[in-house]
Write a structure and sequence with these properties.
437 residues, Aspartate Aminotransferase, domain 1, Aspartate Aminotransferase, domain 2, alpha/beta, 2 domains
């Protein structure tokens, strides 16, 4: 396979210039590529399954703006809807018919959601869900799980995954101890710690907050006994379950991870896909809980740009396409093809491959991966080499071993075959554990 060194000189210059005006040169920490030990590439455009950097290198993209573009970049139908919305205005500070249409699309596809409130991000959605849970139960404690990232609100930056793990810190400076004293973080996929905690403190818990399929310590598949135990404890101690589906929502054949794994949540948070490339989040749930939100109830939430017409237009277009059976079949046929071939490679070379919906992770270890601790044991240097080698072959993966990757409607079999060949080439070259059998 022809291996050529991509020229990224313009990106390196751009990063140096960005550092003069932007802290760390980026507007979200994981984009700085700190774990990789090199300067990040700067992107100038994207289309379908591809990115182009400012040095004119073309990459097959499996980051997809951290899982936003399930249809691929610049899908014509989404762009058409956005252009039509732009002609009318960008924000009104008043209700629109389109907000109700997007809310209807969400409620009709997710059985656990009777009503939904649109916000501007996943972080805002989880903040609101936590506030609702505390108001509804009259309790304060939130139980989360190590490695599950729920946005950067103060109370939830406790043993989070995502970019925090890239920076090798469990939380953040600038957060008073009092702010997080009602947040308890426990090991994911382990039933004993959460059982013991609830036996002592269950009466204080307002909600169990979890990603059913975590995506910020790589894609971790939940053990059936673990999610079953969560539901048993919530029912016994009368606390709520908040399913953080910012990553997983509308990414599964049955729409959400809740539906895919037969899991029941009282509140659900959404983001990424539902905004079609614009900043849109949502929190939804049973009417009796959602009606606590102002102006109906005493739980305050507001946002100048919440339900903005541009993001809503992109969201309506995206969810409408995902509701079409032939589009759904196509994307999951492509994912099944990729998953089947990746599993064959993982068996051949003794690494771990996890997939759920259209998200996946490659773990460069023969060991079982069940939680943050097992991912942390994978050498950063090995992942950095893997990422660099694939990048030189024009394949772009998320720049952290803790982040998920994704395929889209635009990743056809030809593109996937090319990527599979390049992954095998790279594994054979740099992976120390596996040997061809």
């Amino acid at each position: 396979m022809n291996m050529t060194e991509n020229n990224t000189m313009q990106s390196q210059k751009a990063f140096a210039e960005a550092n003069r005006y932007i802290p760390g040169g980026v507007n979200s920490p994981v984009r700085a590529w700190k774990q990789l030990g090199v300067s990040p590439i700067f992107i100038q455009k994207a289309k379908d399954a591809f990115l182009w950097d400012i040095d004119e290198n073309k990459y097959t993209d499996y980051c997809l703006s951290w899982g936003v573009f399930i249809l691929g970049h610049r899908h014509p139908y989404v762009i058409k809807n956005v252009k039509q919305a732009l002609k009318k205005g960008t924000s009104y500070g008043a209700p629109t018919l389109q907000e109700t249409e997007l809310a209807r699309l969400i409620c009709n596809r997710i059985p656990s959601i009777d009503k939904v409130r649109l916000v501007n991000s996943g972080t805002e959605a989880v903040m609101t869900a936590v506030r609702l849970a505390r108001a509804y139960t009259g309790r304060n404690v939130i139980v989360k799980f190590d490695g599950c990232y729920h946005g950067h609100s103060d109370a939830l930056l406790v043993n989070a995954g995502s970019g925090l793990s890239t920076l090798q810190q469990a939380s953040s400076k600038g957060i008073p101890e009092d702010t997080v004293r009602h947040t308890i973080s426990l090991p994911f996929n382990e039933t004993e710690p959460i059982t013991q905690f609830f036996e002592k403190h269950g009466h204080t818990v307002a909600a169990i907050l979890l990603e059913i399929v975590p995506g910020n310590m790589g894609v971790i598949l939940p053990k059936p006994e673990f999610i079953e135990r969560i539901q048993q404890l919530a029912a016994h101690y009368n606390c709520l379950i908040i399913a953080d589906e910012v990553i997983t929502g509308f990414r599964h054949r049955l729409v959400t991870a809740q539906q895919e794994y037969a899991f029941k949540a009282h509140l659900t948070t959404l983001g990424k896909i539902i905004g079609g490339g614009f900043p849109v989040g949502a929190v939804g749930g049973r009417s009796e809980i959602m009606n606590l939100l102002a102006p109906m109830g005493p739980v305050y939430q507001a946002g100048t740009l919440s339900g903005n017409p541009i993001g809503v237009a992109a969201g309506i277009a995206t969810l409408s396409l995902l509701a079409q059976p032939h589009q759904l079949k196509k994307i999951f046929d492509q994912m099944s093809y990729f998953e089947k071939n990746m599993q064959l490679l993982s068996q051949k070379y003794q690494f771990r491959f996890h997939a759920s919906g259209t998200m996946f992770s490659i773990f460069l270890t023969p060991e079982e991966i069940i939680n943050l601790q097992s991912v942390s044991r994978i050498p950063d240097s090995l992942f950095a080499e893997f990422h660099q080698q694939l990048r030189q072959l024009n394949v772009y993966f998320a720049p952290s071993k803790y982040e998920a990757n994704f395929i889209s409607l635009a990743h056809n079999h030809k593109i996937l075959d090319d990527t599979l060949n390049k992954i095998e080439f790279t594994i054979k070259k740099i992976y120390p554990y596996g040997h061809h059998k």
